[in-house]
Amino acid sequence: KSAPDGYTLLLASDIQMAINPHIYKALPYNPARDFAFVVQAAFIEFVLSVHPSIPANNLTELIAHLKANPGKYSYGSSGYGSTHHLSMELLKSTTGIDMVHVPYKGSGQILPDLISGQVQLSTAGISQTMPYVRSGKLKAIAVGSAKRLDAAPGVPTMAETLPGFEANASWNYFAPAGTPREIVLQLNAEINRILQMDDIRERFISQGLIIIGGTPERLAERMKSDYVKWGKVVKDIGLKVE
After folding, report:
1. d(CA 54, CA 120)
2. Sign of the C-alpha dihedral, residues 76, 82, 84, 90?
3. Which residues are within 8 A (CB) of 125 and not within 5 positions of it... i.e. 6 or more apart?
4. What sign has the CA pseudo-torsion 130, 132, 136, 137?
5. pLDDT truncated to tens, each residue of the chain (242 aa)?
6. CA 107 centroid distance within chain
7. If we measure between CA atoms, which residue out of 160, 149, 162, 165 comes closest to residue 47?
């Protein structure tokens, strides 16, 4: 509801913007109608990690073990409808495995419980997870990105085992609907320029982020595809949040 003058922007995840219309009955905004798409900033990449007690060192072994033990293991997420939740549900529906969902109020509690074995699987950010992987407290199974990450080059992608599988999110800039096209393009050009600065790129890579950039139309296409992709997951699991 801010003035469409280019001075107020929203930084938001594409997945949350795409799935909210599917899970909230009375959403007070329409992501496709009430915003001007500016630019994709960066992919937020996650790593599927497990407690060392699980006898699996790669995704093939993990799927086989979970199929042999349906409902025995639990995974933690940062809440119903979160990226972590839907990513794991997509993995379940793709592979036919059965796990118990344990929702948390945020991502901060998941890793301590995963390390202690309260839950046995989860997805979390690369920068938060890899120190525990290197110390042997967790095992990294796969990343949800389309290609291997510079921050964890030894961890395979899920797509290497499940062709076409991708589960990540992106941080994106939006402006209020009605923002003049010339202002949107000016913002787009400036953000793209900043994303290519060496110090910015280094900071992003260190956090396990993949810089994207591109046109407003690229963001619009991603939002459309996410709406369909994640909407199907929401429908399949019957998720509704009051």
Report:
1. 8
2. positive
3. 44, 45, 46, 47, 107, 207, 208
4. negative
5. 999 999 999 999 998 899 899 988 888 999 989 999 999 999 988 899 999 999 999 999 999 999 999 999 999 998 888 888 999 999 999 999 999 999 998 778 899 999 999 999 999 888 889 899 999 999 999 999 888 888 888 999 999 999 999 998 899 999 999 999 999 999 999 999 999 999 999 998 887 788 999 999 999 999 999 999 999 999 988 887 75
6. 12
7. 149
